[in-house]
Amino acid sequence: MASQYQIRADYDADTIVVYQAYAPAIADAALRAGRFVAPFSFHRMTWIKPSFLWLMHRSNWARKPGQERVLAVRITRQGWEDALSQAVLTTADPAAVAQATVHVQWDPERSLRGAALNHYSIQVGIGRHLIRAFNDDWIVSLTDLTPQVRKAATMTQTGHATKAKRLFPAERVYPLPRTLEGLLSSGG
């Protein structure tokens, strides 16, 4: 795949971290249970993002209403790659997208201050028919990153961006199996 479309993530030999932002009620219940439970909805697509800074942009550093809590969701690489193997790009034929169990879109990666960069970050939409597997089989752990996110946001706003970056997870290029490269290629 072209370097501007590489997946960048925090991962180890068995797991990958994806990020999600939720309202406090959803985050608190999930953290107590170690899995998503009500009021989380199992009847709609849930989007997972391996890019920490992209989610910071999307959630406005955990300040956007309904996204005040940032969770690091550590899932199995097997589950992640299973989801990717079922993916359809959101730019594909609308009929194929409508039938897809998993949606993938590539959006411009974001800088610390939210500016669009010249490479892309993957967003993966897990459809309602696969959410139970995501929740019950793939999740290894949930971690509340909200205090860290708020501290990094304050540091950045007060001119301490270099120190704020030390609070970010280490992300590097994810070694995508060749069988998935063509499937996920945006043609760019």
The rounded distance between the terminal residues' Cα atoms is 9 Å
Structural class: alpha+beta
Series of H and E elements? EEHEHEHEHEEHEHHEH
Q: Biggest sheet: strands, sense, closure? A: 4 strands, mixed
Mean pLDDT: 95
> Looking at the structure, what is the overall shape?
globular
Q: How are the strands of the biggest sheet laid out side by side? A: 3-7-6-5
Helix content: 25-40%
Count of distinct strands: 9
Instruction: Indicate the low-confidence ranges by residue numbers.
Output: none
Please give the radius of gyration in angstroms.
Answer: 16 Å
Count of individual helical segments: 8
Query: Which range does the strand content fall in?
Result: 25-35%
Quick take:
The protein has 188 residues and is α+β, with helices and mostly antiparallel strands. Helices cover 35% and strands 28% of the residues. It contains 8 helices and 9 strands.
